[in-house]
Automatic annotation (TrEMBL):
Pfam families to which the protein is assigned, alphabetical: CS (PF04969), SGS (PF05002), Siah-Interact_N (PF09032)
Keyword Acetylation tagged: yes
Cellular component GO terms, alphabetical: cytoplasm; nucleus
Domain CS: 59-152
Keyword presence, Nucleus: yes
GO biological process: heart development
Stated name of the protein: Calcyclin-binding protein
Function per UniProt: May be involved in calcium-dependent ubiquitination and subsequent proteasomal degradation of target proteins. Probably serves as a molecular bridge in ubiquitin E3 complexes. Participates in the ubiquitin-mediated degradation of beta-catenin (CTNNB1).
UniProt superkingdom: Eukaryota
UniProt keyword list: Acetylation, Cytoplasm, Nucleus, Phosphoprotein, Ubl conjugation pathway
Species the sequence originates in: Crypturellus undulatus
Domain annotation SGS: ranges: 137-214
């Protein structure tokens, strides 16, 4: 359009007949209006940002594996084809006690994972990510080289509550609590096994083979 306008302007300078001059003037105004109404051209960076911006729907990642070394906590997240994405599509933000992962536009979906209240502080500068075949590895650098029993403070508190529930001065109470938990969480086969053991225990009680408090 711009080139057409420049050529029309050049022809206008050479036109000597009024009819031709009027036609060229009309065409000039038409081209100027078209150019004015055109959207501004996108810069390459803007186009790239639009291409990698969030689209589709977001999936929360719940499955992961983890282990640790003296210096790092390592979280393994399986994502098919993640190695084919541009590096900037895989983002991890670290704070001293948390990190969040965002994977953009992987097979038309976005994937997120957030860990808050990490068990111990991490170094944001020393932490990083690695993209492997069908996997993202998040490397959290420990501030102190010590063993972590779990990943988050919530997990630790949950384990302590479970331990307290079974750590009683009366061994029979601890056993009963454990059996109740196994029964509540078990499948049909587990429930049948516990019921059978309970019936046999009551029968032995009635015969005097076991103390009554068991």
């Amino acid at each position: 359009l711009q080139k057409d306008l420049e050529e029309v302007k050049e022809l206008l300078t050479k036109a000597t007949r009024k009819r031709l001059h009027d036609v060229l003037t009309t065409e000039k105004h038409k081209l100027e209006l078209e150019i004015k109404n055109q959207p501004p051209p996108k810069l390459k960076a803007d186009a790239e940002e639009e291409r990698t911006s969030l689209g589709g729907y977001t999936v929360k990642i719940n499955n992961y594996g983890w282990d640790q070394s003296d210096k790092f906590i390592k979280i393994y997240i399986s994502l098919n084809g993640v190695q084919k994405l541009p590096a900037e599509n895989v983002q991890v933000n670290f704070t001293e006690r948390s990190f969040d992962l965002l994977v953009k536009n992987l097979n038309g979906k976005n994937y997120t994972m957030t860990f808050n209240n990490l068990l111990k502080p991490i170094s944001t500068e020393g932490s990083s990510k690695k993209i492997k075949t069908d996997m993202v590895l998040v490397m959290c650098r420990k501030k102190r080289e010590e063993k972590w029993d779990c990943l988050t403070q919530v997990e630790k508190e949950s384990k302590e509550k479970e331990k307290a529930a079974y750590d009683t001065s009366d061994p029979s109470e601890g056993l009963m609590s454990l059996l109740k938990k196994m029964y509540a969480e078990g499948d049909d086969e587990m429930k049948r096994t516990i019921n059978k053991a309970w019936v046999e225990s009551r029968e032995k009680q009635s015969k005097g083979d076991l103390p009554m408090d068991l």
